[in-house]
Amino acid sequence: MMRAQAAHIAVPGFNIPYLPMMEPVARALCDARCFGLIMVARLEWEKFAAGGVQPVYETYQQVKDERFMRLHLDHVPVIDEDNLPVDYEDILTEAATLGYDSIMVDGSRLSLDDNIAATRRIVDMAHARDVAVEAELGAVMGHESGPMPPYEELFASGQGFTDPDEARRFVSETKVDWLSVAIGSVHGAISETARRAKKPAARLSIERLDALREATGIPLVLHGGTGIPKEYILESVQHGIAKINIATAIRQPYEALMAEDESAALQAVYDATMTVIRDDLELLHSVDILNPGGAQA
Q1: Which of 74, 163, 177, 280 is the catalytic position?
Q2: Which of 17, 40, 111, 143 is 20 to 30 A from 46, comparing alpha carbons?
């Protein structure tokens, strides 16, 4: 990921809420010669049908081509979107022991001190297994079960944006590898009533991103990448974003067709993934620049 940040190239992370989606996403990465992450978050087996840590790992073994991809366990929260405690240490330890290449602990609903403590425990465990760790500081909204405040109100107030001084302390004390920051993006809705709705058009505070890059010195991650105007996305990559999470853009085309025509639904996932890589992120042949050579980018 350090190489991606230095080269001003994003590594896309594609979330897999339904296991059949993994194959067309992996195939698109290979066909586009794009280095990316195959990802699943805890909510994708709690709210959707990803199965769990073990089924995701087993499916990945069937489709992987490590010239173009790695396996990442996305959001495992300490406190989840329903404000319930999660056995996060057990889940993350299982993934790191199985062979996931990287994992994410999400303590963003905790106090700063508690987030630091939880993240440091996971970093110590994962680094002993040579597994990279992502964490989150700030509040990337959208996964909560209740209604979200109007987007323009959120952006204007900077509510939930990551604080650079807190980020400097967080990175220093946790030794985390990558940091997900809140600079204006929102997650796709996951409730039954809202998950098929169009996401609000978000934008990004490049000024805040610059301050976070200078404060942390590590690769930064943008969650909620779907729906942000392309110019903001590409500018963010020039200013420190090294990984961009994509979920809604590939999930909604699959859900629109999965009950009627599985083959068409899978083709829709492939087409949507290629559109993100080719048109939205301009990442065709990114592997030839990053040249991961069997190691993480």
Answers
A1: 74
A2: 111
pLDDT in tens, 123-166: 999 999 999 999 999 977 655 555 556 666 666 555 679 999 99
Query: What pTM was estimated for this model as a whole?
Result: 0.89
Q: How confident is the model at residue 10 (pLDDT cuts 50, 70, 90)?
A: very high
Residue 34: partners with Cβ closer than 8 Å, 6 or more residues away: 12, 28, 68, 277, 283, 284, 285, 286, 287
Q: For the chain, which domains are there?
A: 2-290 (3.20.20.70)
Q: Which tens digits make up the pLDDT trace of 179-230? A: 999 998 775 454 454 446 564 567 799 999 999 999 999 999 999 888 788 9
Three-class SS of the chain: CHHHHHCCCCEEEEECCEHHHHHHHHHHHHHHCCCEEEEECCHHHHCCECCCHHHHHHHHHHHCCCCCEEEEEEEEECECCCCCECCHHHHHHHHHHHCCCEEEEECCCCCHHHHHHHHHHHHHHHHCCCCEEEEEECCCCCCCCCCCCCHHHHHHHCCCCCCHHHHHHHHHHHCCCEEEECCCCCCCCCCCCCCCCCCCCCCCCHHHHHHHHHHHCCCEEECCCCCCCHHHHHHHHHCCEEEEEECHHHHHHHHHHCCCCHHHHHHHHHHHHHHHHHHHCCCCCHHHHHCCCCCCC
Segment 49-60, tens digit of pLDDT:
999 999 999 999
Catalytic annotation present for 74: yes
Tokens of 26: 């992996």
Could you tell me the CA-to-CA distances from 47 to 23, 51, 147 in Å, in that order? 21, 10, 17
pLDDT in tens, 278-296: 999 999 999 999 875 544 4
